[in-house]
Amino acid sequence: MSRYGSPVAGVVVPAAPTPAQATVWAGSHQAPILDAARLALARDLQLAFRKRGQLVQPLAFFAMVTMLFPLAISPELTRLREIAPGVLWAGALLASLLALEFLFRDDAYDGTLEQYALSGQSLTWLIFAKTAAHWLLTGLPLALMAPLAGLSLGVSVAAVPGIVASVAVGSVALSLIGSIGAALTLGIKRSGALLSLLTLPLSLPVLIFGARATQLAITGGPLLAPLELLAALAVLGVTLAPLAAAAAVRISLE
Amino acid sequence: MTWTWFHRLGSPPYVYALAARLTPWFAWPAALLIIGGLWGGLVLAPPDYQQGDGFRIIYVHAPSAWMSLMVYTTMAVAAAVGLIWRIKVAHAVAASCAPIGASFTFAALVTGALWGQPMWGTYWEWDPRLTSELILLFLYLGYMGLRAGLEDTQRADRASAVLAVVGVVNVPIIHYSVTWWNSLHQAPSVMRLAKPTMAASMLVPLLMMLLGFTLFFAAVLLVRLRGEVLSRERSASWIREIVNA
Amino acid sequence: MSQFFEMGGYAAFVWPSYAVTLAAIVLNIVWARRSLARSREEARRRLATRGEGP
User: Fold this and answer.
1) What pLDDT is recorded for position A1?
2) Average pLDDT over every residue of A62-75
């Protein structure tokens, strides 16, 4: 049995509870919100590691997508190096979209999301915790994989730290923006295309600045400016996106 | 007392009747202004010294572009009002706006492309304005897609309202980032809408078209609004009278 | 008169632009009226199935 129970009332129950096994509301005692958030994060990570196969899917998808471009365009490394930032970011964006469908899906099915909403704890914080877990499980691995894809596209080793940094920061913003779309489309069947349609326009600033930062990393230029802009977008996302996503979750659960 | 009119706007039967009464007051002036603007723009205005008669596309392109932005703003404001104060009529307004805005965004893109080809040698440019306009079309389509994908009207109203508000917050960010991106990838031939101070004979029809299109939007909105209000109403009494009329 | 239709050589661009915009205008009118008619029909049907009860 997992140590990580439902975080919402400070009571330890088995992880991934069915609504029937769900948390007992100890009306008087509620865990402090940061503890609850930490527990939510840990729960999500634990649950994800049980389905390790699913974790690998976005990464495999990313690898395949980046492989398409040399095959479809040209195997010449000089040409590939030119388009590498775009290829890396298009792949990262698409892989993120793929992973976003899983952000709320399981918790919505087994009723945990409803528990979160009803718990009296700040839904915003709990969703922020879930989004953080999502980033740790998809965005961060993507950021670590991106340099490998970059190397296969003729990028020099010196560019690796810059690539990791830009994709890592950018994917934070992507996870946050995507959480809004995922919350809005909760429970809609075959929502993949709609989720992409909703998320992509909102993610374009991240794509633009991220690709620019990656390009500067590859050419060896000063990437601090676009990286800072990316960080600004991520911070903006951190402050606003969980609020919007929480509102969207409440609407979807009504 | 002075707020009574405002509260009445939250009442679906009142809004339904008011919309029906107001529609001709917007529709006819719109028709006159548009016809007058077309006459002024196509016939009376002299050819541009640079673009010849090709510049006349502005009389349909500028109003369309104006519509795409104005309608989105209206939609977002109505959605926010509906979300914050839980007013069904506001949601009905937002829902009514979307198809109108999307169609004129499309028209703006097409007329812009047709203007771009003879003037600047290309149907499409990834310059900030065109790119932002294209993204705006996707925002509209996303909004309409989300509404279509949700069967429950109340959930559709509130979810699409969140989307509209998030979108409107993002529009300046998108525009700024595309401008920044474009300044890095500046094409050798800079696409510029050369508009020195316009002659009155050119400007007046343009203003007539802009105003005419705005009034047209109001008229179409009012027609759609009636349908949207009807579909959100369950209580029979006032609907019975309307439907059996 | 032909000068009007020729639009100084830009006819192939000007007239399709006006056509597209006019189509948007007409489409909006038709679409809006049809949507209102559809809503009225649905309301009528809703009332009928419920026997005009609330």
Assistant:
1) 36
2) 89
Residue C54 forms part of a structural domain: no
pLDDT above 90 (res B93) = yes
Residue of chain B nearest C38, judged by CA positions = B227
**Distance separating alpha carbons of residues A223 and A216, to the nearest angstrom:** 5
Site from B84, B151, B162 to mutate, A interface, most A CB atoms within 10 angstroms: B162
Please, are residues C36 and B223 in contact by the beta-carbon 8 Å criterion? Answer: yes
- Which among A37, A132, A152, A134 is positioned nearest to A84, based on CA atoms? A152
> What is the ipTM metric for this complex?
0.87
Contact A204 B155 (CB under 8 A): no
Residue C40 belongs to domain spanning: 2-49
User: Could you tell me if B43 lies within 8 Å of chain C, comparing CB atoms?
Assistant: yes
What range defines the domain where residue A80 resides?
53-253
**Under a CB-based contact definition with an 8 Å cutoff, are residues A177 and A202 in contact?**
yes
Quote the distance between the C-alpha of residue A133 and its chain's center. Answer: 8
User: pTM for this one?
Assistant: 0.86
Domain presence at residue C36: yes
CB A9 within 8 A of CB A25: yes
Query: For residue A9, what pLDDT is reported?
Result: 52
Q: How far apart are CA A58 and CA A117, in angstroms?
A: 28
Q: Is residue A8 part of a domain?
A: no
Answer whether residue A77 is part of any domain.
yes
pLDDT (tens digit per residue) in B54-89: 888 999 999 999 999 999 999 999 999 999 999 999
> Residue A74 domain-assigned?
yes
Residues of B in contact with A210 (CB under 8 A): none
Quick: pLDDT tens for C40-49: 988 888 888 8
Residue A62: which of A118, A145, A158, A186 has the closest Cα? A145
CA distance C19 to chain B (A): 10
Across the interface, of B106, B114, B223, the residue whose CB is closest to C17 is B114
Instruction: Count the domains in chain A.
Output: 1
Express as a percent the part of chain A with pLDDT over 70: 88
Q: Looking at the 3D structure of chain C, how many domains does it have?
A: 1
Instruction: Evaluate whether residue A3 is within a structural domain.
Output: no
B52 φ/ψ angles, rounded to the nearest 5 degrees: 60, -140
Q: Which amino acid is at B195?
A: K
| Inter-chain residue contact B174 with A204, CB threshold 8 Å | yes
Judged by DSSP in three states, A121 sits in: coil
